[in-house]
Amino acid sequence: xxxILRLFFRLLYHQFAFTYDLVAASVSFNRWKDWVMxxxxxxxxxRILEIGHGPGHLQRVLLARGLAxxxxxxxxxxxxxxxxxxxxxxxxxxxxxxxxxxxxxSFDSIISTFPSDYITDxxxxxxxxxxxxxxxxxxxxxxxxxxxxxxxxxxxxxxESPSEAIEMVKSKFKEPFIKAGFETEVKTLDMxxxxxxxxxxxxxxx
Length: 206
Fold this sequence. Notes:
With 206 residues, the chain is of the alpha/beta class. The protein has a single domain, classed as 3-Layer(aba) Sandwich (Rossmann fold). Helices cover 40% and strands 27% of the residues. The chain has a seven-stranded mixed beta sheet, sandwiched between helices. β6 and β7 form a beta hairpin.
């Protein structure tokens, strides 16, 4: 199943990137963009890097707020979508999270919303720490559960309570950040449209 999912996401981010917004809206019951914007209250400072900018919706909002936003994505197709979304105003770079092309301590906050498993790659976390200022914050939105009848059915089938499942996922996402040297907190956002996890990883020591 994992290889199939990897192939699906690779196609979605590259050859079929033009369908990304439609697919995201479908799986989130049209709440995807709202969920992405939920990271904004956690941003600190003015120098912001987004890893995996996708179609550029968050970049458009960050720029409208006057923040010094920069973004990176491996997909050239996503870069084209983000340029159109931001009317060509975004500062976009094509590259990998494991090899960020920025000087040390370049950013006050680094953000990633709904990334794939590269985000917990030790090389990614090392690069993020290098590029964050001392005390800077890495904000990751890794997963969300839509609030709909299917969610309740899923918990009944698996025999888990929502709180048990959420705590298990929180622990899973917290561990790699702690191992990488971040002071890490995982928050649960209980929204009308769903339950979101936000990882807040602070680069408090060198």
